[in-house]
Amino acid sequence: MTDEIFSRDAYQASTEATVVEVRDDGIVLDRTVFCARGGGQPGDTGTLRWDGGETRVADTVRSAGEVIHVLEEGAVPPPVGASVVAEIDWARRHTLMRTHTALHALSGIVFTDYGAKVTGGNMEPGVARMDFELDGITQEFGREVEAKLNTALQQDHEVHVSFIPRAEALMDPDLIRTKVSLIPETVDPIRVIDISGLDKQADGGTHVRSTSEVGTVRVVKTESKGKANKRMRIELADR
Ligand SMILES: [Zn+2]
Asked: Residue ranges of the chain with pLDDT lower than 70?
């Protein structure tokens, strides 16, 4: 199995690695800093360099538990056994880390202050949407949540990554609320992202170290997507 460095350290932008497998759908490495698409976060992009070659990674996906580095169309893959330097597009990833952390803070605030659970979400670098189990939504509500969100982000809550036994995770109220039970039974321990005092959920993505690093967030749109499904669109102010 690939050593998934990004799951412990989201700030490592490159690593040396060995090519374990070259498949039709991409490259498997013995270790990687490339985070696979999942939970609304797009897969990393970047570059693989080796003695005599270089290729672009267009996407990163997970297939049957493996992290697959998907190459650009027609790219020449490195040979099996090659030593490569795997490097992500750091600016893009860091923007995703800020965007992802903003979504967690948003979901924590909307649950704590309004009692509404998340029903879905998605993000691109600097822009994201999140759907909530709310009966109604107004622009005024959006402005109110935006103010609360920015206040919370500026309070600089630390973001902790931990791995906890599945049995323990299944008894944690915060993790139950965020549907930890839907994670496949083979996953144990479970990775947990805890934004101290704000939000806690099982998550496979990458986040910043503390909320001030997110910067200022704008709620750019509020809309109804059906009964008990209301959408907020957010963006990073400096994107
Ligand atoms: Zn997440």
From this structure: none
76 alpha carbon to ligand 1 midpoint, in Å?
A: 33
Q: Point out which residues pair with 136 in neighbouring strands.
A: none
- Look at residue 88 in the predicted model and tell me its pLDDT: 98
Q: How many CB atoms lie within 10 A of CB 68?
A: 25
pLDDT on residue 93:
98
DSSP state of 36: P
For residue 143, the CA-to-ligand 1 centroid distance in Å is: 23
For residue 94 the two structure tokens come to 């860091």
pLDDT score of 179? 85
Extract the runs of DSSP E, i.e. beta strands, from 51-170: 53-63, 66-71, 83-88, 118-124, 127-132, 159-164
CA 100 – ligand 1 centroid, Å: 6
Q: 81 C-alpha to center of ligand 1: Å? A: 34
pTM of the model: 0.96
Amino acid 238: pLDDT: 93
